[in-house]
Specification:
Helix content is 0%, strand content 53%. The protein is mostly beta strands. The chain folds into two domains: 58 residues, no CATH class; 77 residues, Beta Barrel (Thrombin, subunit H). A hairpin with a 3-residue loop joins strand 9 and strand 10. This is Proteasomal ATPase associated factor 1.
Length: 150
Amino acid sequence: MLLLYHIGKPSLYGSLTCQGIGLDGIPEVTASEGFTVNEINKKSIHISCPKENASSKFLAPYTTFSRIHTKSITCLDISSRGGLGVSSSTDGTMKIWQASNGELRRVLEGHVFDVNCCRFFPSGLVVLSGGMDAQLKIWSAEDASCVVTF
């Protein structure tokens, strides 16, 4: 889903559809009305909204860490300074890891069932999470303790 938001103006919504993969290995992608696919290659896609004179380029990851979770990742965030990552999973855990090499730093356990979302506070020292158990939790990124549950 695409969303273009300007303060004081109505939001514009759109979508991208992959028509398949070309012979060169590059996806053939079209955008819904109001949006344009300007450029696409194996590493990026550039989308614009000409009516609003807005555009964004989305880049593919250049590093993958496949051993952090054993099940599907539901959410991922990188700390404001870029040193740490946090990800939540359908295995009921969140994990804090080194963004440069994927080295596991902390395991945050306490939700029942899937953890849907996780975000660093701007300080990078606190993580907020929400799970299928209808609980919001605030965690210390320094010692993995759950400070409060709502």
